């Protein structure tokens, strides 16, 4: 039993939010990756890029195409992607393995360039993690989880100032959740507190 309808007990006896219980792909992502700390530049650049592609679409679609994205964007190596040109954009727009949206593709290229440039000022990892809030959320239901926060608004502003695009406060909050900067696992979820960042 759980104290919220937003948690579902799986056949393995573990409690997960409804969004993570729908398919094997989402369940595996939730169980092994979502909310775990990402503290490498390449890892954060990948998550930032995938969040941009997800805008207006389902996260499951992005996950299904993740390996295709990795192949198309050189494993999300910022140095390589920063060197992509218009010819590369045209090739990406013909690639059925990814989400073919010119604005999002061009945003990833600009964000790669911004990631490389940011190294002179401490780097992407320090910038993202410097926006960790003083206190964590303790949501019992999905309704308790905001779509943005003062910290995500500040992060979006800082990223834009550093030359990043497609980085609004809602997307930044989703990124912060995904990479462990905040822990929005519901109380009662088997993943609550497993990141090592928060209790």
From TrEMBL:
Keyword list (alphabetical) reads: Metal-binding, Zinc
Q: What GO MF annotations does this protein's record show?
A: DNA-3-methyladenine glycosylase activity; metal ion binding
One GO BP annotation of this record: base-excision repair
Q: Which Pfam families match?
A: Adenine_glyco
Binding positions for Zn(2+) per the UniProt entry: 185
Q: Note the superkingdom of the native organism.
A: Bacteria
- InterPro entries xrefs: Adenine_glyco (IPR005019), DNA-3mA_glycosylase (IPR052891), DNA_glycosylase (IPR011257)
Q: What is this protein called?
A: DNA-3-methyladenine glycosylase I
